[in-house]
Amino acid sequence: MSARYAIYLTPPADHPLWQAGCTWLGRDPSSDLAPSPPSRRALPWRYGFHATLKAPMRLAEGSSMQGLHAALCTLSRQLQPFDMPVLEVGPLSDFIVLQTAEPLAADHALHRLADTCVRELDSFRDPPTAADLQRLQSRSTLDADQSALLVRWGYPHVLDRWLFHCTLSDPVADDGERQVWLDLARTFFSPALERPWRCDALSLYVEPSAGAPMQLLRRYPFKG
């Protein structure tokens, strides 16, 4: 099975931040009308506007899309809506991202949501092969803790090493160019960030085939 599924966090469809994010990236993953990616933001364009809760995964043998759907229905019925923390545009390594203005405590509702998705949905994840692990480790320098998380959970940026962020750019190594993009992004997103974001749903995305643009399949409202 070549398709991969991911659990993302996205603003409601009628929230100005969702509209701003889709406009900035040049693509709405719920409609997928854009024919080609912008040159500067090709990577986030493909994944769509989101923050990662459960990273893209192939389904394990014996698992199915129907089973994942049922698990998300069950999980979302147990979750309660909460107010998102204050967000801001800023740098994360060489990337430009939307991130929390202050570090999140481990017991914050947003951090607990990410941890819950990683753990509760892991039975659906097909474990990476040795070749997959080698490829993932070669993409960036991982410390011993991140390498262990990669082996255990299929992704190095989870649990204690998770940071909420919505990626807005490809890597921009030049400091001057990155500052230009930061200034543009801060101006662009400022009006949308004035409206509070009530976190009230999980979003299921699918990558139909390797390298294909990811699509928003469904949002699962919280009903706890």
Structural topology:
Elements (H helix, E strand, L loop, with lengths): L3 E6 L6 H10 L16 H6 L3 E7 L7 H14 L3 E2 L3 E6 L2 E6 L8 H12 L9 H10 L4 H10 L11 E3 L7 H19 L4 E2 L1 E7 L7 E7 L3
Antiparallel strand pairs: 1-2, 1-8, 3-7, 4-5, 5-6, 8-9
Structure in words:
The structure is a single chain. The protein has 224 residues and is of the alpha+beta class. Helix 1 packs antiparallel against helix 7 (175-193). A 4-stranded antiparallel sheet has the order 2-1-8-9. The model has no long low-confidence stretch (mean pLDDT 92). The chain has helices at residues 16-25, 42-47, 65-78, 109-120, 130-139, 144-153, 175-193; strands at 4-9, 51-57, 82-83, 87-92, 95-100, 165-167, 198-199, 201-207, 215-221. The chain contains 7 helices and 9 strands, in the order E-H-H-E-H-E-E-E-H-H-H-E-H-E-E-E. The two termini are 33 Å apart. Helices cover 36% and strands 21% of the residues. Strand 4 (87-92) and strand 5 form a beta hairpin. It has a single domain, classed as Alpha-Beta Complex (Cyclic Phosphodiesterase, Chain: A), CATH 3.90.1140. It is globular and about 45 Å long.
Q: β content, as a range?
A: 15-25%
CATH architecture: Alpha-Beta Complex
As an assembly, this protein is single chain
Count of beta strands? 9
Radius of gyration: 17 Å
Q: Provide the spatial order of strands within the biggest beta sheet.
A: 2-1-8-9
The largest β sheet comes out as:
4 strands, antiparallel
The topology string of helices and strands comes to EHHEHEEEHHHEHEEE
The coarse overall form would be globular
Average pLDDT metric: 92
The number of distinct structural domains comes to 1
Could you estimate the helical fraction of the residues in percent? 25-40%
Number of helices: 7
Find the structural class using helix and strand composition.
Answer: alpha+beta
Using the coordinates shown, work out and report the CATH topology: Cyclic Phosphodiesterase, Chain: A
- Low-confidence stretches are none
